[in-house]
């Protein structure tokens, strides 16, 4: 007799995912005269070096991604420990409040949050459906590291920073 393993329930799965520390990024751009931003902790670097690719998983229910994906370039700001307080604002339900009083720089249509731990300027390379998410693969067009700035990390459903061991 063969038994099929039970799939984990959503609560258990989310708790397990929370055990894995992830970086926090703000993806932002101007599309048709409107600024759009959302925060993600599903960003992955090192997908490919040639061509240079990064990726993220976006919930299919996102109301921001369908707009943001139409930008010619998208800014990806690796949020730093200094952004802990504004991170919630960047994720606000009201899109018009997200960038209010947040210092940022424009590079073409890309928006880069000031004092980030690093920046990428990207364009959409490809998208793939993945369950209740879309995997967005982004081509890196430009980058700027910010040496000496500690990145913000999402771990166990809260914000933390990385310490050197």
TrEMBL record:
<protein>
    <submittedName>
        <fullName>Flavin reductase (DIM6/NTAB) family NADH-FMN oxidoreductase RutF</fullName>
    </submittedName>
</protein>
<dbReference type="Pfam" id="PF01613">
    <property type="entry name" value="Flavin_Reduct"/>
</dbReference>
<dbReference type="GO" id="GO:0010181">
    <property type="term" value="F:FMN binding"/>
</dbReference>
<comment type="similarity">
    <text>Belongs to the non-flavoprotein flavin reductase family.</text>
</comment>
<feature type="domain" description="Flavin reductase like">
    <location>
        <begin position="17"/>
        <end position="161"/>
    </location>
</feature>
<dbReference type="InterPro" id="IPR012349">
    <property type="entry name" value="Split_barrel_FMN-bd"/>
</dbReference>
<dbReference type="InterPro" id="IPR050268">
    <property type="entry name" value="NADH-dep_flavin_reductase"/>
</dbReference>
<keyword id="KW-0560">Oxidoreductase</keyword>
<dbReference type="InterPro" id="IPR002563">
    <property type="entry name" value="Flavin_Rdtase-like_dom"/>
</dbReference>
<dbReference type="GO" id="GO:0042602">
    <property type="term" value="F:riboflavin reductase (NADPH) activity"/>
</dbReference>
């Amino acid at each position: 007799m063969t038994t099929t393993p039970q799939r984990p329930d959503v609560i258990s799965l989310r708790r397990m995912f929370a055990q894995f520390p992830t970086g926090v990024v703000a993806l932002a751009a101007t599309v048709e005269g409107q600024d759009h931003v959302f925060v993600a902790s599903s960003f992955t670097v090192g997908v490919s070096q040639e061509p240079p690719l990064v990726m993220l998983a976006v919930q299919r229910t996102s109301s921001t991604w369908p707009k943001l994906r139409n930008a010619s370039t998208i800014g990806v700001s690796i949020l730093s420990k200094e952004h802990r307080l504004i991170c919630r604002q960047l994720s606000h339900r009201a899109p018009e409040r997200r960038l209010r009083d947040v210092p940022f720089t424009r590079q073409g249509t890309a928006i880069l949050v000031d004092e980030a731990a690093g920046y990428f300027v990207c364009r959409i390379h490809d998208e793939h459906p993945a369950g209740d998410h879309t995997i967005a693969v982004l081509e890196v067009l430009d980058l700027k590291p910010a040496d000496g700035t500690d990145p913000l990390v999402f771990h166990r459903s809260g914000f933390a920073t990385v310490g050197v061991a």
